[in-house]
Design a protein that fits this description.
The protein is of the alpha/beta class. The chain is 41% helix and 16% strand. It has two domains: 72 residues, no CATH class; 143 residues, Nucleotidyltransferase, domain 5 (2-Layer Sandwich).
């Protein structure tokens, strides 16, 4: 029997949300979800799922259908319904795109781009004051942090301060945060004329919370390396991992 990820307590909490999302409560629903989580954890091809979870093809089809209707994203949002957003921390992290993720038979861009590491995808993540995921965006690896930040920040709950590294040093971002009533705790670049006299270095020291969140998410192999051809499927993998971090809360 493969190692499972859902205790009875976790399943009781997750099952209520699944049913609220109009997911049919079939007899093997728990093992179907366990199969999806197993694939997230070990990063194996779908057809290599252990038989204990049921038919691999049925599990993949359900995962693909749930991704198409953004169910895993909504499940993540339902689990993270009460983040502590006094402080918010934002950062981006590269994910190597495996060769099996290339060649999707779809005309839409699938968020795989060229960067120094070759074919990569980028996860832009925001965590709350406890280091738990509050929201994220998936882009190609070539996309600059400053390009994605405005749209991501616009979706966030109001916060007293938003903390980021100097990759987010932009007057546009600083102005957006001021309009939201948040303090920008972002160090200015070396060539800045304004300097960092107004920086709260004590609060900036807690920026490790977002780095820690990436470390926890990348314990799951299907998040640390992208195997999914479709952006929406990889996005669902990240949403599953983020939601799993919220289950003990």
């Amino acid at each position: 029997m493969p190692r499972l990820m859902l205790s009875d307590e976790f399943w009781s909490k997750l099952e209520k949300i699944l049913l609220q999302e109009a997911i049919y409560n079939q007899r093997n629903l728990r093992m179907t979800v366990e199969g999806m989580l197993y694939r997230m954890r070990v990063g194996c091809p779908w057809r290599d799922l252990p038989e204990a979870f049921g038919s691999w093809n049925s599990i993949y089809k359900r995962f693909n259908a749930w991704s198409l209707s953004s169910k895993w994203l909504r499940i993540f949002k339902a689990l993270s319904i009460d983040p502590d957003c006094e402080w918010e921390f934002i950062d981006g992290s590269y994910v190597k795109a495996h060769q099996h993720s290339a060649g999707a038979a779809d005309k839409e861009p699938q968020a795989i781009g060229k960067s120094r590491a070759g074919n990569t995808t980028k996860i832009h993540l925001v965590v709350d004051s406890y280091g738990l995921p509050a929201d994220f965006e998936i882009t190609g690896g070539e996309v600059n942090d400053c390009s994605t930040a405005p749209d991501l920040i616009a979706k966030l709950p109001d916060a007293k301060a938003i903390v980021a590294d100097k990759g987010y040093d932009s007057e546009c971002i600083r102005g957006q945060l001021t309009k939201k009533g948040a303090r920008a705790v972002i160090p200015r670049k070396r060539n800045s004329l304004k300097g960092n006299a107004d920086m709260d270095w004590g609060l900036y020291g807690y920026r490790h919370l977002v780095e820690n969140a990436f470390a926890r998410l990348k314990q799951y192999r299907a998040v640390a390396t992208r195997y999914d051809k479709l952006k929406r499927n990889f996005e669902s993998m990240v949403a599953m991992a983020c939601g799993y971090l919220w289950l003990p809360m």
